[in-house]
Amino acid sequence: KPAARNxxxxxxxxxxxxxxxxSGGDSQGMNAAVRAVVRMAIVRGCKPYLIxxxxxxxxxxxxxxxxxxxxxxxxxxxxxxxxxxxxRCMDFLKPEGRRIAVHNLIKHGIDTLVVIGGDGSLxxxxxxxxxxxxxxxxxxxxxxISQQEADxxxxxxxxxxxxxxxxxxxxxxxxxxxxxxxxxxxxSVDSILSTATSHRRAFVVEVMGRHCGWLAMNAAICTGADYxxxxxxxxxxxxxxxxxxxxxxxxxxxxxxxxxxxxxxxxDDKCNPIKSEFIKDVLTQRLGYDTRVTxxxxxxxxxxxxxxxxxxxxxxxxxxxEAILRATPDTPSPVIGILENKITTQPLKxxxxxxxxxxxxxxxxxxxxxxxxRPRSFLTQLETFREIDYYSPEGKDSLPADxxxxxxxxxxxxxxxxxNTATRSVVRLCVNRGHIALGIHNxxxxxxxxxxxxxxxxxxxxxxxxxxxxxxTNRDQPDPQLGAIAYQLQRFEIExxxxxxxxxxxxxxxxxxxxxxxxxxxxxxxxxxxATISNNVPGTEFxxxxxxAVNVITNACDAIxxxxxxxxxxxxxxxxxxxxxxxLATFGGLAGGATTIYIPEEGITLDRLNSDISHLREYYQxxxxxxxxxxxxxxxxxxxxxxTDIVAKIYEAESGGFYACRSSNLGHLQQGxxxxxxxxxxxxxxxxxxxxxxxxxxxxGMEIPYEGNLRLPSTELKRKYRGRVYVPSSRASTxxxxxxxxxxxxxxxxxxSETDFKKRKPTKHWWYTARRLxxxxxxxxxxxxxx
Length: 787
Ligand code: ATP
Hints:
Blueprint: E1 17-22, H1 30-43, E2 47-51, H2 54-60, E3 65-67, H3 95-107, E4 112-117, H4 119-141, H5 147-152, E5 157-162, H6 178-199, E6 202-207, H7 214-223, E7 227-229, H8 239-252, E8 258-263, H9 276-287, E9 291-295, H10 307-326, E10 334-339, E11 342-347, H11 348-363, H12 367-373, H13 377-389, E12 406-412, H14 419-433, E13 436-440, H15 443-449, E14 452-454, H16 482-491, E15 496-501, H17 503-514, E16 526-530, H18 546-562, E17 570-576, H19 583-592, E18 596-598, H20 606-622, E19 630-635, H21 644-653, E20 660-665, H22 677-702, E21 706-707, E22 710-711, H23 715-718, E23 733-739, E24 742-747, H24 748-751, E25 755-756, E26 761-762, H25 771-778
Parallel strand pairs: 1-2, 1-4, 4-5, 5-10, 6-8, 6-9, 7-8, 12-13, 12-15, 15-16, 16-23, 17-19, 17-20, 18-19
Antiparallel strand pairs: 2-3, 10-11, 13-14, 21-22, 23-24, 25-26
The structure holds adenosine-5'-triphosphate (ATP).
Keywords: Transferase
Organism: Spiromyces aspiralis
EC number: 2.7.1.11
């Protein structure tokens, strides 16, 4: 258990001068990365410099290289694009241009660079580092720098951060900007869908991605598109006919629209480009569909960054400074990434070489290798899309009759973004494979009453982007009515149960598991797909809905801060949900730029309030001519003594007249709304894995001694047995979890010892390591005036 909040550590030992620049195509979150680099550098005792206009700024020098203060990066977090500018610099491609850059850097005393950009920019940075000693020698020989400077600036240190909307760098699961670009695409396609439905139109939507289909593929998954073209998976042969047949099938199932997503670099298996206009012509001529093309273009690069991009950039920016301080002249240039949900530092050269291999594999027509070189999840996601959104009418892809199952889906607990998306995917898979998907309405009470209906392919069509719970959900537990529940499971011949829910889903599943011996109907595979904004389900690092809620909090922080603009000095105390888990406050705080947060893991003490209030008083006193709203996030259960109102009143009472404090509660806003693309992607992935796992378990459960017309488990159980599937092991009750980039099923009984039932959360919090950054990048506990 974390004992107390970690105060930011100020290191005065280093006096490194660190330049930071953004280069190549811009991407949302680059500003957040620059902010984190600058602030972390100051906190760690270094001197940051902003380099304007990418490498052009290095070559031009002068006022393009400016020392940066804490406040120079205020307001950077929320803005898209790059505020320090970017450029494609031809001069830097030549050694002479790079020599000028070296000269300019030395003149400013900078021998460390953080470069935020794509693979071209990072290649350039690595080249500069290798050439640096030669340039230094030449500059000295030419009398441009002194011997002392030549000795002092013998080496250049480079750290790369990947800013790219394409998510195209091998060796990182996510690049800065990809999440925001995906969000922009999904917002656009969600909007297109309503007009397309009205007119029964087909839309061909072209998205960015010259060599990488990540954006297109994830957009197709998130929006429930009908067909997809990406460079890594070019269609072979007569793809026009295949596409038309696939679209005709979905229309025959009752869909009123057809959406085709095309990556701008889409090609066929002969590497001929597949163009949106050509697809449109095929659909118009062969199917007679009223077809429109929408090229999303630069919309995808725009807008405010998502929560993921903001906290990813912040965590990576902080790590970039740590990597600099750890490095020696022999350390290979690192690139900061994220793998398996952990911030990583890897050799930059290898990462770029691997990335280049993808383009080469595509050029060589080795498409399988191209896809394999992408992060592990890439191929799985591609399969996921095909399975869920291509419609296979009964008889085509479905399983033999004796392998078809009846699978129940139930929502339990409070609504969370992605519950409907996951349900849709389960239903679609079931229909395509020949299973029956049974929707259980209104949670466990609905199950007890038998409120169950078969869900078909079309009935769930719009569920991917719908918030709330379409099946109906509540927090009631199965315990009082276990007999009635067993009866309904038996009556509807439910052979596997999928519970989509939060901690109540967890305790509900545990309860059914404990009573397996009493009720034979409970001896079926059961899976909990964690879905709760609080992200407090044991067995997973992320539950569905948590990303949507963090985005709601982030957007609220942006809006509330703006309300304090003009001349108001206000601190806003915003209460967020999360139960006894501080996850939402922590990641909402990181992404929303909160000054500090109060979470149950730390509690609230008067000492802590005193120190935070002193910080704010000093801040507003010092910044007298400068007005900006500050946000403090407080979890609903941060303290059993100090409520949000009390904390807000203490803040105001002790303000010394330097600021006012207002409180607000985001409440149920956090549970509703359109699920974020991240939650939609996770929902799809979890649903596919769940159905696959259930099939395996059920089919194994059928491999039992055969007696007469029934497959019976054994004579002694014959009396009790009621159906085909009989899985008496309690280990068939599992929680599916996202652990790093792995999907894992953990028997619920193994999670009991890792669960704090009183506080309704896991005993360990993987995310707590990110908590201290909230205060570091906001300046709490650090003297910004002297920084
Ligand atoms: P995007 O993903 O948007 O294409 P990128 O960083 O790959 O981003 P590039 O246009 O390839 O974008 O590179 C940006 C700048 O980096 C170039 O204009 C050039 O100044 C520099 N650069 C790129 N490749 C090299 C190289 N091989 N050597 C030196 N500098 C390079």
